[in-house]
Fold:
Amino acid sequence: MFAHQVFGRGKSALGQKQTFAVQNGMSALPPKADVAFDYLTGPLTNNFALKVREFVSYLRVVHNLGGPLRMPKSMCKRVAVVTFLMMALICSAAAKNAISVHVPLPPSNPLKNAEEQKQQNSNASVLFSGKKLPTLGRAVAIGYYPSGCLQGGVELPITGPTWQVMRVSRNRNWGHPELVNFLEHFAPIAAKATGWHGILVGDMAQPRGGPLPFGHKSHQIGLDVDIWFMPMPDRLLSKDQRDNISASNLVAADGKQINRENWSSADIAFIRTAAEQPEVERVLVNAAIKKELCRVESNDDKSWMSKVRPWYGHADHIHVRLKCPADSPDCRAQPAVPSGDGCDKSLNHWFADWILRLKIPDNSGSAKGLKLKDLPPACAAVLNAPAGPTSANMGEPSDAR
Structure:
């Protein structure tokens, strides 16, 4: 390429030599000049090491020509041009080689790595229950209902026009904004459907979600809430009352049927109103309650019943679970509920003797054994993120609005 630029295109090597000799007043090139010309017009190798060696050899040829034989001025100019181009090529190859060289990173901080490793292997329920405030930033539900966390959690006020939060000392009245919005919307329509003054809200999530040290396996991503089978009273409950009053148990002692003394048509309206909300994924109830709903509801109006699913416990509250919000791409959706109303033979499974004999301790939770490393990686960042604003609901309940 360089020879063509210096000596002209479209000529053979011999023709180029003759042209060069005539231009410089010679009948033919001297032997040493002929060697130099062959080198300067020869093909260049792509190998960087060979280019260097060839360039050194070229300099020796030029040096030898500079003895008794004087190079014509025009040839010196051409040699200078080729030398410049050759040096540019060598520098370019060297720069490319330099870029590809691996530069080792500075050594990591072993103390910081050890602390992170220790945290990853720590009990996640202890870590998350120790966080009393949510993170800064927009709200995001991360992970799966029984294995995840919550960024940017929002607090449900402990007292509203048609709701009161129970077990205030647990600090579990936090959730994704969609859960808080759901409760503020659901409370008045549930009150209207049942004739109650309002609803009593149980556990939602911790300020940053995550595993709870007792009571639940789920409730980790801010989309679950327990709502009691007990009307809100017409008075403001004290903090002590909220922490100690028990909800009404609607299931008989044998676990096979409802407790007729506590059951009423208002409970059916309560469950139905929750299941009919479009953002609701499931409503979990005790199997005996599901069986009673299957018995009393008309056959031509059970579209909402598919969302009502039997589960262990849930004799004194409904467990409402919302769908993954659109703003939470890392929220894992629960598989769709089976088709049908759930009143088929599959319901019989829940009344097998071995199922009925299962005892679920009130203050335990299978999420208790989860470590931080078992949760989605983003949950470590949520755990260690700066805290958001101080809660306005800490301490004694405020007056009802």
Summary: DSSP finds 13 helices and eleven strands in the chain. The longest strand covers residues 280-285. The two ends are 87 Å apart (CA to CA).
